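quick one before i forget lol
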Amino acid sequence: MDPTIFFSGGFLLLLLLGSADALTSASDVAALKAFKAGVNPRSIPPWSCLATWDFAAADPCASPRRTHFTCGVTCSPDSTRVTQLTLDPAGYSGRVTPLVSGLTHLLTLDLAENSFFGQIPPSISSLVNLQFLNLRSNSLSGSLPESITRLNSLESIDISHNSLTGSLPKSMGSMPNLRRLDLSYNKLTGSIPKLPKNLIELALKANSLSGSVPKDSFTDSTQLEVVEIAENSFTGVLGAWFFLLPSIQQADLANNSLTGVEVSPPSPAGSSGDLVAVELGFNAIEGHAPANFAAYPRLSSLSLRHNRLRGGIPAEYGQSKTLRRLYLDGNFLTGKPPAGFIRPDSPVYGSFGDNCLQGCPGNSKMCAPSQKPFSICKQAYGGKPRS
């Protein structure tokens, strides 16, 4: 055999073997370098994922990963593109670099439970394959960029427990695959925009959203099962349409400034009968307790506590076979509670306390705390409370 041929073949083999250590796309490597450069080195513990990111010693997608890039990065099967950037909750502090947009094959971006601050870069819209975005429990500020609504592959957004301000993007309803949106515990203002049609879970708890709960925003969201919009500043009357949403199961609107609630029986032709839990406590709802809640065949938990309800407890509540949790305390309800609720063997847990009820024995678990003083009830009704 010609020795030069052997030498050339061997040299080629060495080149191929050597190139196995440099697999990752150059653009992905550059984006990862920029991302790490945006993190304060003093916030990177020696045991953390980012501490193992040594670009001089190893390629991000090379395997086996014994000492470098041992975590934080997941690559495609051919080891050329980064598909997941999932950091450990190690207290990393820094800004999310706009250059993260270079990771165009990214499916998951998860930086949860760290100390990233500053704005979410609008360039995030370049992550066209992104499906899961989790930035929960950081210190991010500024508004949620409108450009995020161009990410048509996104299925889940969780940016709860940050300091986001401003309004929700008006074009949020254009996101075809979004199933879960959690922006709770921020400082968002304005109203709820049109929601994505395939949304299943909406969580906007503990913000500063205001105005009425708009029907038009929910019209197309026929798969919506969970709505958590408690601890905001919503006002006005919550229409009967809300509880007739075809897939609604859980609704939490506590701690707002709602003044009324309308409830119609579930439609026999629809699937709105799946309603399981309703939380309307700590609002300013006036009038009678809506009897039609008892018409929902699966409702097991209902709270109307600390509102301004008057009149008697609907007899229909006592006829429900599914109610297991009922809170009506802190209102101005009168008369006698349904006998079945105050029996020692009652399967229902909750409270009728702090009302104007008569015949609610102090030894009943449902009658605690004690009723309002007669003078307060008399003043509330402009005379003797009527049953």
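fyi Confidence is low (pLDDT under 50) at residues 3-20.
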